[in-house]
Amino acid sequence: MSTQKLRSIFLLLSLTALVPACTDDDPPLPDNTVQFEASEVGFTANQTELEVKVNLDRTVTAATNVTVELAPTGVTYGTHFTTTPAATNNTLTLTVPANTKTTSFKVTKAANIVLNGSETIDFTIKSVGTGLVVGQTAKEKLKFSSIISSGSALKLNGGAGGSSALNSVFVDFSSNSQTAIARNSWELGFFGGSDFRVIINATTGAAVKALTKTDLAQVTAADTVALANTLILGQGQGTFDIIDNVDGDLTKTAIKEISATDANNPVYILNPGASGTGQKPWYKIRILRKGTGYTVQYARITETTFKTLDVTKDGNVNFSYVSLPQGKVVAGEPAKASWDIVWGLTTYKATETIPYPYADFVQINSLAGVQAAEILTSTTSYDAYAESNVAATPFKSDRNVIGGNWRTSAGPNGTPAGVKTDRFYVIKDAAGNVYKLKFINYTSTDGGERGYPNIEYKLVKKGS
After folding, report:
1. What is the DSSP pairing of strand 40-42 with strand 139-143?
2. Domains of the chain (ranges plus CATH)?
3. Residue 32 — φ and ψ, nearest 5°?
4. Do the beta carbons of residue 351 and residue 216 sit within 8 Å?
5. Dmax of the chain from CA atoms?
6. pLDDT digits (tens, 9 = 90+) for 242-258
7. Comparing C-alpha atoms, which of 256, 257, 250, 205 is closest to residue 231?
8. How many CA atoms lie within 13 A of 314 on its CB side?
9. What is the model's pTM?
10. Residue 278: which residues within 8 A CB-CB, separation 6 or more?
């Protein structure tokens, strides 16, 4: 090769090295839209306060304002309702904090007022901060009565953490609502039904084992030595006898039914699983009946004294959640009549002999009578599925009928993760309303964001 050619090649390589890695050809980020979570919501019969949520597509780097206009019909601000934050001249100014992607405000009904249920408030996003644009759902109607939604789209608020998203998200189709509960916020769930059953937190990988002792004061760290490598889940560890039945059978909880005879209720060693900051400390617990409710005795493994907490049965919920570090009943899953499915991480099974912490898992509210069916698009398309199809739909009460079947994981052969487009689901809630449900995306390879899956649902048949 000639000297001149070598000089030309060297010059070309030198110039190439000076070109920035990011060029004008890189695609710009899409608009960061601001919109209401749903187009319609309503107060239930016993509800006095309702949260209205406003979501962004992605986080903002600096605190940003969103202005919302109120248009009441049949009600007057300050007389029949108020908001938090307070409105001025029927206008609310909300702040989206830095490094977040959501904001909200609360509407509170005044006490001792008489309404006929036809009253409404129309909310409209009027202005947004720099770098934001108003999205498609710029209006939301709040009714002062229960609604039966005709359908909507929701982005589930799983929170940070990707495949280990921080929240469990409960969805109620008929009210267009979702409730996000921090997985790390509770350790034990106390059944509100007629049986005396207690569950452990499957969403954190909790595990529990009974001892032969019935006195917490006699339990020391020595009692956990043999459990150090057996009371742990994940990476092929753990067995099904240290967790609750993964299909939700309450006769097969790891903590046996609480006996009316105190002497029959042993001490358990509880590994509460992992929090967002690592492994939680272990506890020794003992649960007794107290009248129609429960008493839980608990302490850290090395503590020589223990605390007690009484838990009243609440028939409005499947389970009342208890936080042992806080020593109290905490906000948990919504009322059992107010949710249909829950999305999030939970303990399921890798094989028939190995438990597994399963991300992006969906369960139905089978304890409250919700049923579901999986429909393959080779038989009926989502768009074509109508009320005439309902009678032949094979509804099941299996809590895991949706499970992880709605998505694929990234495979070792390069198979990308994504929503399965060859199927959708039909949900029949406890009131007989039938909705068809499809998952839009859940990870970056199918246009979504891990921890914030998008769903769409439509009313097919109204309950009688």
Report:
1. parallel
2. 32-147 (2.60.40.2030), 191-330 (no CATH), 338-461 (no CATH)
3. -90, 95
4. no
5. 98
6. 999 999 999 999 999 99
7. 205
8. 20
9. 0.89
10. none
